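CHAIN AND CONFORMATION:
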Amino acid sequence: MEKVTKKIYTARMESSEKLDRDIRQLQAAKNKWVALPVDRKITLLKELKYKLGKHARQWVDLSVKHKKIENHPSLAGEEWSTGPWAVLKAITAYIKTLEHVLAGNPQKLIKKISQRKNGQLKLTVFPSDFYDSLLFNQVEAEVWMQEGISKNNLASHIASFYRRKTPKGKVSLVLGAGNVNSISPLDVLYKLFVKGEVVILKLNPVNNYLTPVFKEIARTLIEEDFLRIVDGGAETGEYLTRHPGIETIHVTGSEKTFNAIVFGTGPEGEKRKKENRPVMDPGKTITGELGNVGPLIVVPGPWHKSDIRFQAENIVTAKVHNGGYNCVAAQVLFCLKNGISRKSC
């Protein structure tokens, strides 16, 4: 019994030593990454895009195998759209954005600028291209800017990280999602190319079968010490969240996981939460994409029967996709008696 315990303890120590080494290497490279020229980052993104295309089939085949849906082609199609395709689209968008940043005109990415009645600026950001319009017919997305941002100063609020003269490098921990397997790489891309932080990604045990694929796709980022990808369960996650070398944390998961990181677990954790006494190092910042009760609102017509059928199918899909295990899943349906006028916006 003593020998078995010693083996387990040694394995844990080896794991923590490896994690310590990974974080030291990221710390040593964080200022190099933050100062990396934009054209070099564009080159890295293009390499990521090429390697992702090269390994996309392997990604999907592994997902299909582990989810046991080999005999369901339609479900396999979903693995393509919510896996490699989603990340490829994001990488393409980052390349386009950074090319505009390099040219000094990121405001050209905005399709339409308008104002609300109170003067607040509205930016139409979606659809961004022909494929968006084709795949998401008549779907639009707007960003409502904060007070004080006008057409005259808008450009100075776009890609703000790349306008800093002496940005400070940071090491970020990304705790990967256990549902849609493109979320983890998307979170990593955001931290790297939007926030300017190097990353250690801990994949969720549910989908860590993709670790070898992700490592191969991101090989250059790993070799240059800008990224580390590790496996492990709750114990590894806890060790990393408490590590002094981690400066920011992002978690995709449940409210319970988020609260455990910030306040601790058990009765003591509940007490700390009520008293707003975080156990997490106050020098760290944490963001979370957590489960929620997503509302879906149906407003009165004029609708044709075909419209109603189409939207009904959308509602069902939003509810049952991935068994409902999505932070954006529609959980509550509102049917209003009175319509909402777009003019009120």
Q: What stands out?
A: Residues 89 and 289 are 20 Å apart (CA to CA). The first strand starts at residue 112 and ends at 115. The chain has three domains: 2-103+167-290, 107-166, 294-344.
